[in-house]
């Protein structure tokens, strides 16, 4: 009897519950920001921790961009503006356009170990911000782009990349030093050895000409001075037809780990017609290359500045570097051929993560077939690797904190 009464009450309660629900509309289904408003996003602190910045567009304004961003992905809308609040004044204030470049430049700068100084680049200039001061100090201004700023040499110098090489600036003396000497192309071949007849003719000419003897002495003195100067310069490293794809220096300034990218030549891309153009004519847009097109390959090296030598980071020592994918079992003939001599898979060794003292580093390594992710200790002096962790997914390695092919993910020292 009790069970019957509960069923009756539940039956009559359903219409009452349904009447309380709001009508289902297109606006409710789509949840477009134009109807429900926009939330602040991309929140970050100012370097002195006195302000909080965020992106926001409370008025749904179109003044800065052409359209309101429509989509469900997190992050700032294309029409968002930069706002700030302070601990004393919680009312949001729109950051003036003239200040936004400096705010964004400071955000992506690099701190020293005790977080008392911040180095960053803006508009081809290098800046140093001391949190006890009010304005950043301009250290250097050039006509070329400055990137990848940071601290090294135990915090006594700031380092930066300029024109494909690494430089340092001493914070006390202001002296600038070239740390790497990467050059495009190949090293020129030395002149061929002289034949016995040519050596005799040259000696005879020197014996009979005082002017030639004087020129030889001057050239020998110049060469000697150049060799003495070269001994203080970094080793010249020729890139051939490859490009620098990443470069970092250890906190003590001894090791420079760099990665070279070899891009295949004559890669054909698909052409996608674009019918909506300002010219009124159909134009082609370059799309992705077809599946199976040769992809770029990567190799990583360690330049020891103390020994002025370069050692490669050998990928053959990575555990499982020759493992075959499971799907090949469905292609028995190909699988049997590859099992006889499995190839070394292509990988990308990402920039090393150093501890504060520079005494240790580890690297995240991603296989370019997206099956494996390794975390390995790096012995920078020898280029040897030691496994800390390996993750494998036959479908696609990924997930929270894992990162992507060129992203380390959530890793660090504690």
Would you give an account of this structure?
- This protein is α+β, with helices and mostly antiparallel strands and 414 residues long.
- It is built from 7 helices and 25 strands.
- A hairpin with a 5-residue loop joins β15 and β16.
- The radius of gyration is 31 Å and the shape is extended.
Short description:
Helix content is 20%, strand content 33%. By secondary structure, it is of the alpha+beta class.
Which characteristics define this entry?
four-stranded antiparallel sheet, 7 helices, five-stranded antiparallel sheet, alpha+beta, 414 residues, disordered N terminus
Question: Residue ranges: pLDDT <50 for 5 or more in a row?
Answer: 1-18, 64-78
Which assembly state applies to the chains in this document? single chain
Provide the β-strand percentage band.
Answer: 25-35%
What do the pLDDT scores average to?
Answer: 83
Total number of beta strands = 25
The share of residues in helices is 10-25%
Shape by Cα distribution: extended
Structural class designation: alpha+beta
Q: For the record, give the distance between the C-alpha atoms at the N and C termini, rounded to a whole number.
A: 65 Å
Cα-atom Rg, whole angstroms? 31 Å
Number of helices: 7
Q: Largest sheet, described in full? A: 5 strands, antiparallel
């Amino acid at each position: 009897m009790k069970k019957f009464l509960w069923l009756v009450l539940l039956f009559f309660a359903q219409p009452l519950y349904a009447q309380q629900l709001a009508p289902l509309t297109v606006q409710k289904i789509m949840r477009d920001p134009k109807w429900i408003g926009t939330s602040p996003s991309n929140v970050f602190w100012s370097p002195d921790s006195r302000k909080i910045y965020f992106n926001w567009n409370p008025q749904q304004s179109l003044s800065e961009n052409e359209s309101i961003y429509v989509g469900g992905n997190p992050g700032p809308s294309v029409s968002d503006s930069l706002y700030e609040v302070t601990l004393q004044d919680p009312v949001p204030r729109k950051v003036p356009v003239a200040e936004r470049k400096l705010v964004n430049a400071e955000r992506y700068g690099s701190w020293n170990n005790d977080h008392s100084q911040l180095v960053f680049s803006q508009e081809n200039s290098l800046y140093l911000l001391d949190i006890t001061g009010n304005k950043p100090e301009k250290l250097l201004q050039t006509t070329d782009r400055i990137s990848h700023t940071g601290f090294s040499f135990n915090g006594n110098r700031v380092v930066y990349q300029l024109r494909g090489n690494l430089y340092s600036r001493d914070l006390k003396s202001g002296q600038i030093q070239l740390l790497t000497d990467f050059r495009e192309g190949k090293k020129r071949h030395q002149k061929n050895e002289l034949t016995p007849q040519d050596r005799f003719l040259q000696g005879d000419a020197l014996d009979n000409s005082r002017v030639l003897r004087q020129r030889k002495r001057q050239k020998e003195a110049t060469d000697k001075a150049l060799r003495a100067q070269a001994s203080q310069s970094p080793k010249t490293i020729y890139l051939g037809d490859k490009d620098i794809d990443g470069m970092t220096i250890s906190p003590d300034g001894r090791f420079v780990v760099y990665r070279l990218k070899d891009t295949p030549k004559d890669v054909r891309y698909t052409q996608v017609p674009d019918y909506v153009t300002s010219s009124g004519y159909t134009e082609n847009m370059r799309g992705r290359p077809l599946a199976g097109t040769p992809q770029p390959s990567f190799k990583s090296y360690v330049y020891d500045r103390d020994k002025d030598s370069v050692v490669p980071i050998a990928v053959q020592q990575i555990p499982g570097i020759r493992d075959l994918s499971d799907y090949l079992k469905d292609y028995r003939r190909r699988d049997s051929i590859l099992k006889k001599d499995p190839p070394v898979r292509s990988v990308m060794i990402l920039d090393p993560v150093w501890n504060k003292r520079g005494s240790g580093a580890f690297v995240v390594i991603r296989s370019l077939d997206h099956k494996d992710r390794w975390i390995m200790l790096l012995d920078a002096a020898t280029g040897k690797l030691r496994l800390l962790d390996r993750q494998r997914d036959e479908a696609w390695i990924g997930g929270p904190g894992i990162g992507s092919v060129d992203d380390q993910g959530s890793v660090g020292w504690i």
